[in-house]
Amino acid sequence: MHQELQLVPEMTVAENVFLGLENERWGVLAKDEAERLEALMRSSGFALDPGSVVADLPIAEQQKIEILRALARDARVIVMDEPTSSLSKDEVGQLHEAMRTLRDEGRTVIYVSHYLEDILAVTDRVTVLRDGVHVRTGPTSDETRGSLVSAMLGRGKTETPFPEKVPPVGRETILDVSELGNEAGVRGASLTVGKGEIVGLIGLVGSGRSEIARAIIGADPARTGDVMIDGRPYRRRTVAESARRGLVMVPEDRRRQGLVMTMRVRANITLPHLARIFRTGMIRSGKELSRTRELMEYFRVRPADPDGDVSRFSGGNQQKVLFGKWLAEKPGIVILDEPSRGVDVGARERIHQAIAELAAGGTAILVISSEISEVLGLAHRAYLIDRGRTVEEIDPEAHSEATVLSALFRHQAESDTDPGKGSAAGTRTGTGEDDRVQVTA
Q1: What pLDDT score does 416 carry?
Q2: Residues in Cβ contact with 308 at an 8 Å cutoff, skipping those fewer than 6 apart
Q3: What pTM value is reported for the model?
């Protein structure tokens, strides 16, 4: 099971799960995948609509399909690479129960995860890797979160604290969003981000956080509301025009929305900035190469090869290349959607440092993360999101994950009293650590 989803977007849930395993008679497909899927879901605890088209589903639902597809193949050895990165807490519990069942049936599960509590909760043995090198293997019962982090970092550290928050440069508002709404589910989103300020969006999975970001930048058209940049209205929004105005977004899905996997690293990094390295119809390769090397060194991309095949890089290094792509020209406003999704502890630490350094230099930053601890640790202010709306502004210093979750569920319950509003999904609260660990259960 790959870390990056390997699904056919135009096919249904059931068709994806049983792709290559279809029943047929006399060369004609039996089309009984939906019935077979119902039985598989009963045994795994997951619930999906067999007839839903995968392209219409959020990433959390697509992650479940990947898991069901592996279980459908009755494999003796299953390698799960970051299978829980988009799942709610209850869904993670269901997956862990399925893993225990597989183990008890005599199968082997190799579980690659950055969530330390998950590793400690479900595995029998743990192998720690650092920079592709084996550090140690031993019983999970001998490990703690601190010991795993220390082994991963190799510097005697047992925690990876967030960078110190530098107060915003001033009170100047750079981004002002008012009552934004569209057909993608955004309805009544209002927020501000000041110069040098980090502002977070916190919501349950499916709350509309990413949809708000896409509406701001112009990736999805807005029907209502206003966006102001530096006090001036920004109406006809497109991704290209936003980039020209210094408003950029690092998307959640780096493979489908962020990087061109058939291009080299340097081509990916300079793609949005060709006008600056173009002369008489030719790319100035020297300038392109030097800027790429600077950014790769700054983000500590490994391997540090500007001509490297980005599709072969680890998820963490792909994420750092994606950061370099959109931060190359020092934009004034940056939207970060799941900035540390699927990256190891070292990459996470470097990304957090880069975010803090950007803000200290005056960049306005809007950060979205499924890990509440990440938003609380990075942001000066944060907004709670429910069903595409900003429902409350909070001070991260005055809140914990528990109090934020309590507030989110309270707002959800209040919205449930309105029959015209749908229900939101659960949340995945992260561990506060993000460590590259290979585990054998």
Answers
A1: 62
A2: 264, 265
A3: 0.70
Closest CA to 204 of 25, 432, 12, 401: 401
CA triple 325-333-56, angle to 5 deg? 70
| C-alpha to C-alpha distance for 415 and 323, rounded to whole angstroms | 36
**In terms of CATH architecture, what is 13-153?**
3-Layer(aba) Sandwich (3.40)
* pLDDT at residue 295 tops 80: yes
Domain 173-414 classification at class level: alpha beta
pLDDT digits (tens, 9 = 90+) for 98-138: 888 888 888 899 999 877 888 999 999 999 987 778 999 99
Q: What is the pLDDT of residues 229-247, one digit of tens each?
A: 999 999 999 999 999 999 9
User: Could you tell me the CA-to-CA distances from 228 to 77, 142, 168, 218, 371 in Å, in that order?
Assistant: 53, 54, 19, 13, 28
pLDDT above 70: residue 424: no
In angstroms, rounded to a whole number, what is the distance separating the alpha carbons of residues 23 and 103? 28
Instruction: Write down the mean pLDDT value for the chain.
Output: 85
| Nearest-angstrom CA–CA distance, 32 and 236 | 47
Q: What is the chain's alpha carbon radius of gyration, rounded to the nearest angstrom?
A: 22
